[in-house]
Amino acid sequence: xxxxSTFCMALFGVLFSLDAMGQMTIRGTVTDENAEALIGATxxxxxxxRGTVTDxxxxxxxxxxxxxxxVFSFTGFTSQEIAVDASNVIDVKLSEGTDLNEVVVVAYGxxxxxxxxxxxxxxxxxxxxxxPAVDMTNSLAGRLPxxxxxxxxxxxxxxxxxxxxxxxxxxxxxxxxxxxxxxxDRDGGFGRLNPQDIESISVLKDASAAxxxxxxxxGAIIVTTKRGKSGKPVIGYSxxxxxxxxxVVPEMSDAVEYANIRNELAVYSLPSEEWSAAWGALNSxxxxxxxxxxxxxxxxxxxxxxKYADGSDPWRYPNTDWFGDAFRTWTPQKRHNxxxxxxSENLTYFTSLGYVYQDAIYKxxxxxxxxxxxxxxxxxxxxxxxxxxxxVMIRREDRNYPTESAGSIFRMLMRGRPTDPEVWPNGKPGPxxxxxxxxxxxxxxxxxxxxxxxxxxxxxxxxxISNPWIKGLKLNLSGAVDKTSETSKTWQTPWMLYYLIxxxxxxxxxxxxxxxxxxxxxxxxxxxxxxxxxxTNLTAILSYDFTLGVxxxxxxxxxxxxxxxxxxxxxxxxxxxxxxxxxxIFAGGTVGQETGGGAFERARLGYYGRVQYNYKEKYLAxxxxxxxxxxxxxxxxxxxxFPGLLLGWNISQEDWFNIGGLDYLKLRASxxxxxxxxxxxxxxxxxxxxxxxxxPGQYPINSQVATTLYETGLANQDxxxxxxxxxxxxxxxxxxxxxxxxxxxxxxxxxxxLIQKTGSTPASSGISTLLPPVNEGxxxxxxxxxxxxxxxxxxxxxxWSAGINGGYANNKVIFMDxxxxxxxxxxxxxxxxxxxxxxxxxxxxxDQADIEANTIDYSEVIGASGTLKPGxxxxxxxxxxxxxxxxxxxxxxxxxxxxxxxxxxxxxNYKNFDFSMLLxxxxxxxxxxQTESGDIGNYLKYNHDNRWSIDNPSSEHPRLASRGxxxxxxGPYGDNTYFLFNxxxxxxxNIEIGYTFGKGFSDKVKIRxxxxxxxxxxxxxxxxxxxxxPESENQAGTYYPQxxxxxxxxxxxx
Amino acid sequence: MKNxxxxxxxxxxxxxxxxxxxxxxxxxxKPLDRISSDATWADGPLSEAFVFxxxxxxxxxxxxxxxxxxxxxEAMFTHAGRNINTxxxxxxxxxxxxxxxxxxxxxxxxxxxxxxxxxxxxxxxxTFTDTELRDRLLGEAYFLRAYYYxxxxxxxxxxxxxxxxxxxxxxxxxxxxxxxxxxxxxxADLDKSIALLDGKPEAAGRASKLSAMSLKARQLVYAASxxxxxxxxxxxxxxxxxxxNIALIAYTGGDRAARWRAAQEAAKAVLDAGTGYKLDLSxxxxxxxxxxxxxxxxxxxxxxxxxxxxxxxxxFQRTHTPQFTQEDNWPLGGIHYGINxxxxxxxxxxxxxxxxxxxxxxxxxxxxxxxxxxxxxxxNPYAGRDPRFYATVLYDGAPWKPRPSDVAAxxxxxxxxxxxxxxxxxxxxxxxxxxxxxIEDWNGTRTHYYTRKFIDPDPALxxxxxxxxxxxxxxxxxxxxxxxxxxxxQALGEEDKAREWVNKIRFRSGMPATTAAGDALRDLIRNERxxxxxxxxxxxxxxxxxxxxxxxxxxxxAINVTATLKPGESPHVPYRHxxxxxxxxxxxxxxxxxxxxxxxxxxxxxxxxxxxINRNDKLVQNPGY
Lengths: 1054, 625
What we know:
The structure holds two protein chains of two kinds. Chain A has twelve helices and 53 strands. Chain A has a 22-stranded antiparallel barrel. In chain A, strands 10-15-16-13-14 form a five-stranded mixed sheet. In chain A, strand 24 and strand 25 (473-492) form a beta hairpin. Chain B is globular, with a radius of gyration of 28 Å. Helix content of chain B is 40%, strand content 7%. In chain B, the strands form four sheets. A four-stranded mixed sheet of chain B has the order 7-6-10-11, with no helix packed on it. Chain B has a two-stranded antiparallel ribbon with strand order 2-4. Chain B has a two-stranded antiparallel sheet with strand order 3-9. In chain B, helix 3 packs antiparallel against helix 5, helix 8 runs antiparallel to helix 11 and helix 8 (209-224) packs parallel to helix 18 (478-491). Chain B contains 23 helices and eleven strands. Chain B is α+β, with helices and mostly antiparallel strands. Strand 36 (693-701) of chain A pairs antiparallel with strand 1 (35-36) of chain B, so a sheet runs across the interface.
């Protein structure tokens, strides 16, 4: 690259000498058609970042060159563009209506909305700020049609949502490409960006992403951060104080309910004709003598059940609410943000400094998330034809956890039996459930700590050179460096719990407790890990915009990008610390030390370009392409070519077009071929699958840990890109100047999907787990999106806007190498990806008569000598052969991911009040519930309330099981439809009410602007699935649930 | 002016093209976390590391959480929902497979065999110069291939014999070889291994010449057994007589006596080459010494409290190190055998617990049978038994390790509590190690017994702690060879030889010599195997090759122990076992908590999965499925 930079320097030398021309200051006012001042209208010099906003009188002042075009815009009004001539006063009247001059960020540039030909959904940063979610991904749900947002955990620091575009298109990795300020694959993604820094977010859903080539198949999300506006410095400060709690705390059985279930289970070991008598005897006497002479005792005696019910002895007979004892009602979170923007003609700046703190719901929580973020975006005009920009982002994400994972904590909360104590009545922590795990303690620092800070330093800079002699020709050189350092320190110390000493009392007359170390280790231990990553990106883009004749607008662009990703890390472990007082690595014992480490390097090179043509902005055509090379493929198949063709027709601009009320109508069509180089299967990125390599492993030999080498896989010299071929048809329009609408239809075919041909390869080959990727998978995905927004009169006192949007995507596996010869109705092919394969539950045998009436052979289910009992589950004999066996499993049409996502927005302004609301819903997914219940753990209240019991026999719900000990709960027949729940939901995702203090107030305290507001996330949910949060994907409930957040905030600017 | 325009256009173009003209070599990144196969076979230590990986398919040996013992009349698996009952209730089918361990599962074994095949293919042409190492590694690879085939053949019968690593896009369909062909293949591999390992260094956890000789003896005694003799097998089972591909699972011709002879000679060769542990006695040791001897063998010389010399007993073992962190993750491995199987009153998980039928098969110390119909036996069934019983089973009142600190107050006497005891005021105290305990009751035994055989009794090693035990898993030990020799000799009518070696084993345990003959001697040898090799993954196969499946499929029996205070006595607080204060009652009962066991002759072999047969249509399913 030495040649490269020397050449650039030389070139700059030439160009610097070309600096010239004068500037002038333009003033004026912006009003509506009734001459009412528009406050806060945007005034921008076209194709620059120079801009300002109108003040309370609607007036502005801006510097521009003669010949520049100034763009005036205001939400709900049609923008106007006015060229600067000799006059330095420009007054503008904007009329209400849809804003066709609105600019949308697309790949490698911006486009006027009217000329956009792709399926692009976009969102302004100010919408994102309405949500108090700490991870920004959660603020996007319901706002962008076609964007699938699923939050599967609410744990601070881990609460980012899984985001995909148009559902799932592949058997492999479905993550879209994230582009931040023009840089693809920025380390850390976009979830943790400061929402206040966001200017806009665009989602490229179709061929418009093709210019990203090998990473475009899953679409792209383009995030643009704010840049400075010239003028007096404006300093803004905002403060948010939020309070969070889980959206759903699973409702568990109480002590009496649990005791009754356990006693029932004791009865079920008897022959069923004795159940009724036995149940009566257990409830009255606590034991029953069976006909064979054996005695069945109740698990909880009648006396004990009575004590659980009346709460007379909370020490020995508690009624424990495990979640309640471990949780606070609300937990705080807060966000501070300070930002400053301003600048001169030649240098503008935007800078922000932020702090986030988020606590977990546990009492004395060791879990919390802290973030410090800093950003500066500078834009400099170096000369008349040279502009430079620099962006600096520094962020620390500091995650703190207890040493026990959220998975362990919530497993214990789900398991905790209501008949056991979590906390003694005197406030001392109760015994463990097992392995020292008592949620009241393992949520705190009593077990040590995990401190996991990650530092991101991200720099990007660029130079734009536009040549004065060839108008429209522009060269952009840019580079980016992302440096990330992550450390993780896990310090584990033994911890103490309190146990009841039987038959003894303390000084207060309460039962005596004895403390005991109950961690499954007694020596403190420390694990530290360090890792760092370095991503670099070098880009050169040449573009040329020109007009042929008067009406033929052409825009050409070509670019090249070189990307490298490297990283390395190591870890060290010591145990046998003599004291928990020193938490440093040197102080550990030398026995049992462990170290580890690793490194990687990855690289990509892409050439790309775009040709845009429009005739009078009426007929639009765009061709984009990329030739991409990725390190992940063998050299002979490393490069792929990815073209996209997009067409648009602004039909309403035709002279003959005259449909009353239809103010605007555009038809669009696109086709693109895109790639996916994220070869994922078995949960791992398959790197170097073209080499015959061995990986190091470990196995004990001769009482030592020996290093082993294991075969990584069979080399395949012949594989390449996963290829997407996506078609999109779209309509944009506007009715009566008020109702904007967009419809999209898409049909995506993904082929050459890299799969492992395990289905047809016999295991006896010895290679079925070593099979390399081959380009054979095929998936179709089709669906539609819509977006309707109605805007009230823009400048009335009460202004409002309402919208509904939705996205439906239904994928279907076309080929994935299935096991040959399995029944048609069990095949994955023809069904959605990961569709459930289950037995169809058909209710329950209500009683013995029901069993006697049964004609279906269950011998393969319960064994030849087994017997059916009342309350057992019935299955449908799907293939009608008179017996239930593996051939009766059916592949359903549904999986665990919703197919249809909807959003509804309403915003309103009245005087100083503003209001906004977002309803969001998802439909079409099923969810498997399988909790660890029985002697080992509590039952969901749902299961208690809906069960076959001796007193209340059901033909719908089966008997409960202890830990999968019935054929329909454990083993192969446990996969049945009874345990599948409908996850459809609609929730009030986001609501905000604000009040902006009037000018009079503000003057007194020298504050330019003061707004106070309240907003909330996940305020309430309507669903049929009341067990866990409907976005949950954890069937046992062993995860930190999604949060509801109430937030109060104030923002002011000076 | 126009020329200038072009100048700039060209200048711009060049700048833009510059990076394109760059060499794209930087895309040829290198994997930093692995090594090429070529480099491996050019280097001794790397080749050795590859062969170590072939060992890794031995997994946890028999120390898996769900032990093979729980598929037999040795043990019951405590936790429901693990697909154990699918097997023991005879409900396993090609479309609904029961629990199967990675140590014998079809696909895993063929993966292991492939790794051995790679080593066997590459080692002869390896370019490193240490030929002793090369031959040793090759000998180990042959041994391991034989071992993994022997696993497959024990569970599935004859299987496809694949002796080279497949490449991509080959025809992978292949028919099963006959049982006889498989035995011959395994024995041939072992003969190569014996030759290659002759005179090579030995290390615990690696195959030696003696390991290969021993595996050969085991394979040969299996080959001579009832199940694998077509005439016998078909006479004893209608399922097998109806199977049209009987050669897949049994010898259809040849001289069965010659097979017994081959087994006898192979075993004798091992007996002559090795020593074992204290197998040179001519009279019984004391019961205490018998317990100590047996405990020491089980601990494999790797416990502070056992005799380190007992390590000589082990011919092929899976060693352990407390640093192998993979075994700290679930499913826990052999270093956590105590957690997997020990009592809940020690915060352990019960796992595989002894069932009454095993307990009853331990003879009395005088060599007579235990009998519930004898009042003295019934009143105190744990008194005066084969010393190996005390070294294998934890029963109510048995002394054991110190309790963990939070339980110590409940049981200062450190005795197993699997009963229910009179509290002196009309109620019961639930034993700490029962399923009604205040300590993790869901991890209590369902049979009222626990295994102790492989749990390190070292009081400094609490089970549910990260300081783990390192007791090795005995794949093959010397005594097994003595038992094979005895079994083959008995079958050949050479009863003196049989009795000689059985008695040596009995003397070491403190048991008297036997004088049994004929079928009684055969049954005694079988019982000796059952007792001596308990929990060592033999019973499953022995019960099958002897074709006594109905024994394996018996309904599980458990015991109920209750204590009532003798008149005038007041209870111990806290409770401890005391026959002077309490009257103990022992009641045997059928336990169908998790499984209602049965036997079906199809269970002699595991089914090949429906999917595998669909992928390879040359495969023939096993009988009965």
